[in-house]
Structure formats: C-alpha cells, structure tokens
Amino acid sequence: MQAIDLRSDTVTKPSEAMRKVMAGAEVGDDVYRDDPTVNRLEAFAAELLGFEATIFTTSGTQANLIGILSHCGRGDEYIVGQGAHTYRYEGGGAAVLGSVQPQPIEFEADSTLSLAKVEEKIKPDDIHFARTRLLCLENTQNGKALPLPYLAEAAAFAKGKNLSLHLDGARLMNAVVKQGVGVREITRHFDSVSLCLSKGLGAPVGSLLAGNRAFIEEARKWRKMTGGGMRQAGLLAAAGLYALENNIDRLAQDHRHAESLTEGLAQFAALTVDKNPAQTNMVFFTADAATTRDLADFLGRRQILISPGKTTRLVTHLDINDEDVTAILLAFAEFFSGRRS
Ligand SMILES: *Cc1c(COP(=O)(O)O)cnc(C)c1O
Fold first, then answer.
1. Ligand 1 atom with minimal separation from the 61 CA
2. Are 254 and 200 part of one and the same domain?
3. Does residue 35 sit within a domain?
4. Which numbered atom of ligand 1 lies nearest the CA of 207?
5. Same-domain pairing of 257 and 225
6. 137 lines ligand 1 (CB under 6 A)
7. Is residue 203 domain-shared with residue 263, that is, in the same domain?
8. Which domain holds residue 222?
C-alpha cells in the first residue's frame, strides 16, 4: 500500500513520463555550458519568468543563497521575514558565506512585509551601520499567495529606497495558478526570482534563479563556489523542463484538495482549522498536544503521514488524488469517533 504523504510537496516522485524524458535527455558538461538540456531549461524558464537569464541550481536554498550573494557584498544587509525560508531555514548561509547581515521582521497576517516596518529598519548611511541593499519577499508564504497590488507597492517602494527586490518563489506557480494570472504579472516586479522544480511541480531535484544577464553571470560564479557546478545535469534539467511544460496547470487540483481537506477538517470540534482565502496547497490546524500526537500515530498506522506540531501543516501535491482525500477525511472521522485502534 502506497503511503499518503502530507508532510510536504517535496515528497513527490517523478512520474513514468518524467523518468522517460530524463532517461532520453541529451547531455554534456554543463560547467563548460555544453549541456543542451540544461541550456534549454534555462532559456525556457527565462522566457516563462520574463527575465534575460536563469541558472539551474541544486536546490532552492542554493538559488536563494547565490541570489543574495549576487545582490549583496560583505557588510551589506537584506531585510526579510522572520519566518521566511531565506532567513530561518537556510542555515544562515548569507551571513556564514557572504558576511551579509539579515534584518528579519515579522510577517503580517497576509504574509506580506509591512513596507512601513521595512522602512523603519532601513539603516541610515552612517559608519555605524550595515548597508541595507536588498528586500526579500516570499510567494507563496506558508501557502498563501501575496496580493498582486502589494507586489506593485513593494516594487515602487524598493525602487524609491534604492533596494534590490528578490522573490523566494519556491512555490511561485501555486500563486500564479491560484490568482489565474500570467507568471510575469508576478515576476515583473522583482529584480530576481527563485523557483523550486522539486516541490509541487514534481521534479526530483533542482531549482532556478532568474535575473538579468550580468546578475546571473555573477550567480554562476557563486554557484560554482558553493559546489553547484554540475556536469551532465541534463538528466535533471529534463525533469525540470517536463515539470514546467506539464505540471503547472494541474496545481489547481492540489488547491482543490487542500480546500476539501480544510472544509472537511473544520467539521471536527477538536481542531481549529485556518481558513484563509489566499491559501493554495496547504492546510493548517491546531489541537491540543495529546490529540495531535495520538492523531499522528493513528494516521501513521493507516499509512497517512503528517508532521505533527504546535500548528500542524498538511500539504497537497501531485501524488495525492481524489480517493486519497476521501481516505484522509475518513481516517480523521474514525479517529474522532473514538475508534482509535
Ligand atoms: C522549499 C523552499 C525553499 C528551498 O528549499 P530546498 O529544499 O533547498 O529546495 C525555499 N523557499 C521556500 C519558501 C521553500 O518552501
């Protein structure tokens, strides 16, 4: 029996069709820029995202890291969400490897960063301070798509303050599908954008960083330095291309599944379920600690995997189908009806 894995959309496995294009991919040494499939992916993604160039990276963490290192130098600062991946979940890479200081601030309830609060944190031009160079946003953030008007405001703000603007768009395509807009309606506001191929898009490995040509050349140097100069990477790039060509529109199914789960779980009095209209492929609920633990054990015995926490997050993705959603809701119902064997 195949487990129903709700821990993350990183758990997706390449489909047969994806494996087939991977196996047949033309390859070369990408450090020499000789890999035709990597080159095709980078050109395709540049067109899709509306930038001069993109670079294929080993992970989203690497894409964000080399992005920050390409925007900022030693003694510079970037402003970022307290719970943002580029601050909290990337090992402090920009500080460790780039001597770039993060200035975190709390996200607002809608996952934006208040531009008034950002403004307060921008350091004056004075010998005491780091130079504030960059503002990082995240879209989606905790599964929520950022409001489009906010993106325009943030871009105008950054321009006015002489800050570069980076988007951690690990799940950018979830926002695109949710809002029913062209990709560029979101990306055009940013100087650089990262995108994960290995989450809901279903590729096994890899991310992209997009920017202008000079920026991406700088990022290429940092990618090599951080161990990301891959050789016959076309095998992986083929999966990325397949993902971008086939797996964007279907994210709508994941969003529908998350909605069904949100509505279904809201029926159980012991759970407090977050209902946010900007949500895409995640469900968040809280319950008391003992209930959450018992629930996770109970579901685990039925091959339904969750990561229990103070807030528990369920993530839908392309390996969760309609029947799985029914099975998940049934298992919750059994648990709360008291049949906790
Ligand atoms: C997953 C994720 C990343 C990158 O993660 P990797 O595991 O390094 O690919 C970056 N930002 C956000 C918001 C993410 O969810």
1. 8
2. no
3. yes
4. 9
5. no
6. no
7. no
8. 10-246
Number of domains in the chain: 2
313 lines ligand 1 (CB under 6 A): no
**How many whole angstroms separate alpha carbon 314 and alpha carbon 260?**
12
Locate 325 and state its tokens: 């959603």
On whether residue 3 sits in a domain, the answer given is no
Q: Tell me the C-alpha distance between 276 and 110, whole Å.
A: 9
Output the CA 304–ligand 1 centroid distance in Å: 23
pLDDT in tens, the chain (341 residues): 689 999 999 999 999 999 999 999 999 999 999 999 999 999 999 999 999 999 999 999 999 999 999 999 999 999 999 999 999 999 999 999 999 999 999 999 999 999 999 999 999 999 999 999 999 999 999 999 999 999 999 999 999 999 999 999 999 999 999 999 999 999 999 999 999 999 999 999 999 999 999 999 999 999 999 999 999 999 999 999 999 999 999 999 999 999 999 999 999 999 999 999 999 999 999 999 999 999 999 999 999 999 999 999 999 999 999 999 999 999 999 999 986 54
- Claim to verify: residue 275 and residue 336 sit in the same structural domain: yes
Same domain (yes/no): 238, 204: yes
**In this structure, are 158 and 144 located in the same domain?**
yes
Instruction: For the chain, give the number of residues.
Output: 341
| Helix ranges, 266-336 (H) | 289-301, 322-336
Ligand 1 within 6 A of CB of 35: no
Ligand 1 center–CA 64 separation, angstroms:
9
Instruction: Examine residue 186 and state whether it is found in any structural domain, yes or no.
Output: yes
Distance CA 110, CA 129 (A): 30
- Residue nearest (by alpha carbon) to ligand 1 atom 6: 60
User: Does a structural domain hold residue 2?
Assistant: no
**Nearest by Cα to 4 from 318, 339, 334, 341:** 318
**Of 246, 262, 295, at which residue does a domain stop?**
246
Nearest to 197 by CA among 235, 237, 240, 229: 240
Q: Note the pTM of the prediction, 2 decimals.
A: 0.97
- Residue 290 neighbours by CB under 8 Å, 6+ apart: none
